[in-house]
Amino acid sequence: MQLSQAVMKLTEDVVRFRRELHKIPELGLEEFKTKEYLLKQLQSFGIKEIYPVLDTGLIAVFRSEKPGKTLAFRTDIDALPIKEETNAPFASQHLGKMHACGHDGHMATLLGFAKYLSDYPEAVRGTIVLIFQPAEEGPGGAQLMIDEGILTDFAIDQIIGLHVFPDYPEGVIACRKGPMMARNGEITIRVLGESAHGAQPHQGSDAILAAAAVIQGLHAIVSRNISPLSSAVITFGKIRGGDAENIIPGEVVLNGTMRAFEDGVYETLTQRVKLAAEEIAKGYGCSAEVSFEHLYRVVDNDPDMVDAVRDVAGDSYIETPPYMLAEDFSMYQKEIPGVFFFVGTRDEEKGYTYPLHSSKMNFDEKVLLGGIECYLRLIERLNQSQVLREERSNDQRD
């Protein structure tokens, strides 16, 4: 994909945006300095329509007299509770917080896009809505923004988003039709037994032993209750129980995640986890209390919009396999057609190989220019598809 000269001229600004934002990471719904920075930049571009949403979100709007759709472009703005170890000169100034998932790059991309539209208003067709969304990492800012009415208030027709992705080389644009990222939920299981001395286990009910059996049993759900042609995962990453090596605890708490690409599979996981945990614990003389927090839906890309991404990306495009990662962009896709794509950041020579959420995750900001170029081309391409549909409809009526 060849970058236009006008996009190339944004390089210095995009690098600056990303590095200044990288220094001030903030957790979900606490992004006050981030919002202040974003607002200052948007105002400096001369944008007339800027609206606050929630305490830390922003909306910027561009309108044109040229007919067209209302297209939304979304970035997440929050960071993670991670101590940075990149040794970059622009490393986090907020101890224990880091933009380890690339949201600083997403913001820089949308700011660069906004600057371009401000400098070249003729690029706008219909209405362009830029969404600066808090709390993607939790508790789920997309749904909060939807609940504030942004999709209906601005009459958004379609939504577009991207994510930097170190699995793919620099310059790659990766997408796929249909499910691309999983539906996810969190599992909490309280295994309740009866405490006893470690030398006299027969006088109690061993919650640790029961919890171990629960974990082993639940992992069989995917292999025995889910079709081999479907995908699902259950993982437990946290166990808490016991205070001393010679005391059998009366309670153990398990925390895990479950993910699937199909709603039916996800519902099966929910039912089987609850039933199996309760019955397995009972077999060890214990009980189990199972609760779920259902988080994000499947990132389900609109096929026509994926075709548009493929067309504008040209030889930079590849089809990605689906990933069991989760992303709250999916909540917008529940309401309106949307497309979400990856921008490759991997570069072995530069050392940009660390995964998302790593304390050493970093990338070359120049890859973000490809995202801006795609966004600009999508304005025209998605409106062309609207014109073609209208022409076909008129022909059929004639």
From TrEMBL:
<keyword id="KW-0220">Diaminopimelate biosynthesis</keyword>
<dbReference type="GO" id="GO:0046872">
    <property type="term" value="F:metal ion binding"/>
</dbReference>
<dbReference type="Pfam" id="PF01546">
    <property type="entry name" value="Peptidase_M20"/>
</dbReference>
<keyword id="KW-0464">Manganese</keyword>
<dbReference type="GO" id="GO:0009085">
    <property type="term" value="P:lysine biosynthetic process"/>
</dbReference>
<feature type="binding site">
    <location>
        <position position="137"/>
    </location>
    <ligand>
        <name>Mn(2+)</name>
    </ligand>
</feature>
<dbReference type="InterPro" id="IPR002933">
    <property type="entry name" value="Peptidase_M20"/>
</dbReference>
<dbReference type="GO" id="GO:0050118">
    <property type="term" value="F:N-acetyldiaminopimelate deacetylase activity"/>
</dbReference>
<keyword id="KW-0378">Hydrolase</keyword>
<dbReference type="Pfam" id="PF07687">
    <property type="entry name" value="M20_dimer"/>
</dbReference>
<feature type="binding site">
    <location>
        <position position="103"/>
    </location>
    <ligand>
        <name>Mn(2+)</name>
    </ligand>
</feature>
<keyword id="KW-0457">Lysine biosynthesis</keyword>
<feature type="binding site">
    <location>
        <position position="163"/>
    </location>
    <ligand>
        <name>Mn(2+)</name>
    </ligand>
</feature>
<dbReference type="InterPro" id="IPR011650">
    <property type="entry name" value="Peptidase_M20_dimer"/>
</dbReference>
<keyword id="KW-0028">Amino-acid biosynthesis</keyword>
<dbReference type="InterPro" id="IPR036264">
    <property type="entry name" value="Bact_exopeptidase_dim_dom"/>
</dbReference>
<protein>
    <recommendedName>
        <fullName>Peptidase M20 dimerisation domain-containing protein</fullName>
    </recommendedName>
</protein>
<keyword id="KW-0479">Metal-binding</keyword>
<feature type="binding site">
    <location>
        <position position="357"/>
    </location>
    <ligand>
        <name>Mn(2+)</name>
    </ligand>
</feature>
<feature type="domain" description="Peptidase M20 dimerisation">
    <location>
        <begin position="187"/>
        <end position="281"/>
    </location>
</feature>
<feature type="binding site">
    <location>
        <position position="101"/>
    </location>
    <ligand>
        <name>Mn(2+)</name>
    </ligand>
</feature>
<dbReference type="InterPro" id="IPR017439">
    <property type="entry name" value="Amidohydrolase"/>
</dbReference>
<dbReference type="GO" id="GO:0019877">
    <property type="term" value="P:diaminopimelate biosynthetic process"/>
</dbReference>
